[in-house]
């Protein structure tokens, strides 16, 4: 089908399709459109966000079955073919003959590209190598001086994943300050976040900046936008004196403070109400796994706070009140809280 028709048809399944490049649309039309229509017939919606445990297991199954069919002897060879130049032509031929794209995405209602990236993350042995040694840090600095930010090349030389080397270099190069945040640093951080979110908004919807300029409130942006992943290495550069992880932690702290508006949400009667609401909302989701929960929506259960705040309160609930919680599944923990603790909390209230 032609490009405009493909974009129109994909819009039913992917609301942000207008922001996707023409070349990606062409690939999605070939790899995803038929799959999405089949899932629709079954009443299954296309998903984004974090992969569930069930989806991870399905990817594992798909990869193992493809290896068995083709005789390729490892998932690393299948998913990181460029690491094996002598086998490259054979592997590419087997992938084509046995319909690699269709097989790897079987049973998973997500865009093929996201499934492929998830599989690469799951099966990359370079993802799980622990702390960097002093020698590795020196090598990383040397390679970055030689190749700039070509993290793909550097990751191959270091036998680490792209993300790992990029983030580690970000930490190494920063003039790191481990003391308390100064007022100036905090203001720099807030300005940096504001700037990158403005930039994102402007690229996605130029009209939204008008309402942003007219707003005089502290919360200068729709709170849902503040939960979205932010480019922390870019923010780190703008702050100058802290590395990206510190910036992220400090921003979450600022966000919680601002959105909670100083309320003591977890004390006295308010605390009981918050626990009751959170347990009820979690039970109503019917989720089998924590990754299936929309934590942003649940934030309303205990007040206008970020998702991390809600997740922390749930963790405290299960640790404090659910015996042997480590041996229970997510749904068993929710059932226990609903059946055993909810009546107690309601009686106390």
From TrEMBL:
Gene3D superfamilies: Homeodomain-like. This is TTF1 factor. GO terms for molecular function: chromatin binding. Residues 124-172, 173-255 form the Myb-like domain. Residues 124-161 form the HTH myb-type domain. One of its GO terms (cellular component) is nucleolus. PROSITE patterns: HTH_MYB (PS51294), MYB_LIKE (PS50090). One of its GO terms (biological process) is termination of RNA polymerase I transcription. It comes from the Eukaryota. It comes from Sinosuthora webbiana.
């Amino acid at each position: 089908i032609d490009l405009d028709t493909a974009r129109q048809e994909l819009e039913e399944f992917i609301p942000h399709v207008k922001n996707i490049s023409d070349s990606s649309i062409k690939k999605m039309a070939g790899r995803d459109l038929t799959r999405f229509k089949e899932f629709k017939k079954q009443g299954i919606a296309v998903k984004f966000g974090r992969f569930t445990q069930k989806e991870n297991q399905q990817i594992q199954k798909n990869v193992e079955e493809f290896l068995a069919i083709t005789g390729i002897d490892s998932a690393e060879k299948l998913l990181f073919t460029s690491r094996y130049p002598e086998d490259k032509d054979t592997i590419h031929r087997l992938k084509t003959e046995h319909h690699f794209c269709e097989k790897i995405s079987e049973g998973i209602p997500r865009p093929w590209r996201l499934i492929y990236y998830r599989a690469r993350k799951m099966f990359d042995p370079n993802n799980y190598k622990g702390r960097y040694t002093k020698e590795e840090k020196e090598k990383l600095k040397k390679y970055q001086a030689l190749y700039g930010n070509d993290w793909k090349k550097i990751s191959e030389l270091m036998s680490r994943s792209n993300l790992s080397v990029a983030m580690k270099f970000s930490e190494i190069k920063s003039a790191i300050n481990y003391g308390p945040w100064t007022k100036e640093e905090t203001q720099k951080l807030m300005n940096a976040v504001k700037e990158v979110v403005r930039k994102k908004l402007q690229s996605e919807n130029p009209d939204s900046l008008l309402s942003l300029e007219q707003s005089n409130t502290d919360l200068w942006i729709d709170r849902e936008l503040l939960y979205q992943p932010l480019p922390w290495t870019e923010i780190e550069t703008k702050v100058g004196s802290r590395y990206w992880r510190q910036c992220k932690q400090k921003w979450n702290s600022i966000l919680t403070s601002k959105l909670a508006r100083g309320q003591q949400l977890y004390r006295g009667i308010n605390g009981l109400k918050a626990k009751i609401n959170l347990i009820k909302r979690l039970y109503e989701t019917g989720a089998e796994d924590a990754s299936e929960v929309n934590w942003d929506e649940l934030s309303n259960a205990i007040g206008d706070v970020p998702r991390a705040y809600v997740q922390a309160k749930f963790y405290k609930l299960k640790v404090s009140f659910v015996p042997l919680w480590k041996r229970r599944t997510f749904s068993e923990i929710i059932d226990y809280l609903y059946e055993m603790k909810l009546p107690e909390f309601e009686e106390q209230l």
